[in-house]
Amino acid sequence: MGYAPPRSLSMVTNVKTQDGYNLSMQRIPEGRIGGNISGNKKQPVLIQHGVLVDGMTWLLNSPQQNLPMILADNGFDVWLANTRGTRFCRHHVSLHPSQPEFWDWSWDELVSYDLPAVFDFVFNHTAQKIHYIGHSLGTLIGLASFSEGHQEDQLKSAAFLSPIAYLTHMKTALGVVAARAFVGEITTLFGVAEFNPKGQQASIFLKALCNYPGVDCYDLVTAITGKNCCLNASTVDLFLQNEPQSTATKNMVHLAQTVRDGVIAKYNYGRPDYNLMHYGEARPPIYNISNIPKDLPILISYGGQDALSDVEDVGQLLDNLKYHDVNKLSIQYIKDYAHADFIMGVNAKDIVYNQVVSFFKNQQ
């Protein structure tokens, strides 16, 4: 069964971004055992989900098996982020989700606005440096942000699960077809700024993609993520009841550009004069991952069956980190794991989460 922490353990708070979005965060300040065993101030951990889902995906397994509760039980102060556009983050100071302007953003804005807002909030609240965990798109925005020098004074360490940075070798048939479909003028797709996978226009779009040769959408989770080894059927059912969540169509276009162009760059407006207007140059600026501080403790955990975070693409990411302090970089490769195993795998506690806990404890 899925699990949401009891009210006494979890607190919901709202964070405003500089561009006016209200982001909901959930905090689990203590574990089920309660009390602060060590008597020290607890280390904050910020957990960032991927695209088309929200922070609830981390809580679908039982408290013994899900990452936020395992961290809380191990004495960490856990904060779950939710990005703009997902179900708890559909408020803005002046815009409404029915207006296209509400959806005029890509993952660049998550790097520039959402991540800084939640980091500032947690840092100001706890007065301590923060351990960061990202999964999927949560890794991309973390990598891009840290490469730009953001959060440097607030960040203690970073764990990247199923890292998405380079996407050139992505093997999911649905993903490849979708990436081709999304590249192009945003308006020619459906003329819809919100990409809601449960909405009518997106459903028509997905049905069309599922008719492509080689694309089997009978099992949608596998069609998108690759063959996960270790998911419990009831957790997958819960996942499908809760997810997917909306994102901006522009965000999907930006991810498609990342697949096509083989670089981690800012959003490409498709015309040199538009890019010039936004960036002062004809091509979008590149996020230089090798600029991430060499002494930042980093854990990277990736799977051999992951169709989104492909082994070759992770290899390219690691190549960008080849000058990183060797004793500050931990790498874990899990042969049987695919993309969703990292958030919902029944054995993720033993294989991944215990590693994450010891990695963070080593940074004390």
TrEMBL record:
Domain of life: Eukaryota
Domain spans labelled Partial AB-hydrolase lipase: 14-61
Residues of the signal peptide: none
InterPro entries named among the record's database cross-references: AB_hydrolase_fold (IPR029058), AB_hydrolase_lipase (IPR006693), Lipase_euk (IPR025483)
Pfam families on file: Abhydro_lipase
Family: Belongs to the AB hydrolase superfamily. Lipase family.
Protein name listed in UniProt: Triacylglycerol lipase 2 isoform X2
Organism annotation: Gossypium hirsutum
Gene name of this polypeptide: LOC107892170
